[in-house]
Amino acid sequence: MFSNRTVNILIPIISVLLGLIFGAVIMLAFGYNPIKGYGALWSGAFGDLYFFGETLRQVTPYILSGLAVAFALRSGLLNIGVEGQVFVGWLASVWVGVTFDFPMIIHLPLAVLAGACAGAFWGFIPGILKAKLGVHEVIVTIMMNYIALYSSNSLVRNVITDGEDQTEHIKASASLASDWLAGMTYFSRLHYGILIALFMAAVMWFVLNKTTTGFELRSVGFNQNASKYAGMSVSRNIVLAMVISGAFAGLAGTMEGLGTFGYMSVKSGFTNIGFDGIAVALLGANSAVGVVLAALLFGTLKIGALNMPTEAGVPTELVEIVIALIIFFVASSYVIRWAILRFKKEGK
Amino acid sequence: MSFFEILQSIIPQALFFASPLIFTALGGVFSERSGVINIGLEGLMIMGAFVGVVFNLAFYDTFGAATPWISIIAAMVVSAIFALVHAVASITFRADQVVSGVAINFLALGIGLFLTKQWYDKGQTDMVERPFYTTNIPGLSKIPVIGDLFFSNMYITSYVAIALACLVWFILFKTPFGLRLRSVGEHPMAADTNGINVYSMRYVAVMLSGALGGLGGSVYALTIALNFSHATIVGQGFMSLAAVIFGKWHPLGALGAALFFGFAQSLSIVGPSLPLLSEVPSIFLLIAPYVLTILALAGFIGRAEAPKALGEPYVKGNR
Q1: Which stretches of chain B drop beneath a pLDDT of 50?
Q2: What is the pTM of this model?
Q3: Which ranges does the record mark as transmembrane (chain B) (predicted)?
Q4: B298 touching chain A per CB within 8 A
Q5: Is the C or the N end of chain A the one with fewer CB within 10 Å?
Q6: CB distance from A140 to chain B under 8 Å?
């Protein structure tokens, strides 16, 4: 009745449902009407074309940060440093965007490339430390997050600007903003980045599934010893996986820098794009298609939640709790799998 | 500024910033020694800070001067219960311990901010009415030189933290309980064969880490932050985790590492007024603890051996 494949698809669906049910229970416990609450969430995400555009805009960086985490995970690495890589990608792309003056055909690709390279570099450091010295990538990437946060703040304040809290707006020739997409969605901030994000998802699928490099990366993720025995360089693949993962994350920051905001400001804390990327990747089962769908779900939840206080009185933070619970359930998939199999046995 | 004056401005500050890290890192030592990775320390601190602040605001009329002490106990209890979520997921449900820890961090912040909105109708709480105050230790503060450096204008919680580190060392290395806890983290199957209940030991260890993380968070809230918002705990939990690893999973090592981080943090605040460091851009002082952790991990201060079974769920009967 349930093949392994169906179980793998069922787990994320059940996790999302459980998360939403718990959210409803919390709403009930605090005297809110969950139907009204989720109704407000729905109309806040899809209510009209403007909200829909904003939802898609939010989905854009989530796809990329989700791909970053998923790509590393497929090679057996947990990249918690996506947050920091987003920061440096954002900063580098905006820096290129405000500093240079080129025609768009050079300027925009250059700015995007700068963001990707900065992220890749930020992923290279934990990668090389893991490959050469065996340092656990989780702790290094966490530390790199803080280094990225404080250094980019300092660079914005002291190098790019003269003591300001925010850089200038990027030149129009480096902007991803699109009159066409914005006009279509009642002037939301939707930009061309969504196309880049979808394209990158296709790239990840292609690289992992259709190329030799991708095969090696996955192989190292499955079993390092076997890969080594088969003549693959484990350390080269670890570094490569972290660099590509970092590049995806850097692009996520680039989307915010060149698309949504058009500037970089001094930040008091993390943007959470990177941390949410972990949730997106886990829910999307580390596959390109799964990541796009999971990003769509989390983008919907985040943007829709903004409508909840006004329409249903529910604090937006409820959605953070729901997302945290979804991660828990996905992480505890062993129990869900057990329950499904149990159910299957009794069904016979 | 004389050398003595410099010391006088740095040492109390360093101890002040270190004490929440010490508490939380000791919690991390318990959890990781039993074989459960705890990236959720940050979330446990957030929970502790939230409970500490809310309890303080709600009950300062009732308990008067004892309020901060009762607040931190309340925070310990609630965070210990909250840590159960991580315990159930990573021990019983065999979840990936890192992922479960990440979820703990999300959950704590979500719950904390949700309830803050719910109860105070805004994004942050009011300032607490009864925080911890600095005191001079009677008698000891009169000792020349040392008295001024170590016993004047200090928070009692700093001494509690240092004393607790010694206590945790004693528990882990000199008691049967500590031996069992460590054996569960090194070789759970061997421990199981010897009649130690691996699951309950790990549950106890994770709940202890919850209690101590909550203690660290509430002490941070009641000495440094003084209110609760999304920006109250930003990274102190991760820094405590780094202190655990920096300190080679040893309570006194973690104490040393936390003191070092406290020192580094105090430098970034006191630094600009010091003659030598005022020339150094503040950014280098800010990122110093993180860069040093990476360098330490890369082996510049000697390799550290993690507990062998760290991160592996124990499945009874598996070989």
Answers
A1: none
A2: 0.88
A3: 6-27, 39-60, 66-89, 101-120, 154-173, 203-222, 228-247, 254-274, 280-301
A4: yes
A5: C
A6: yes
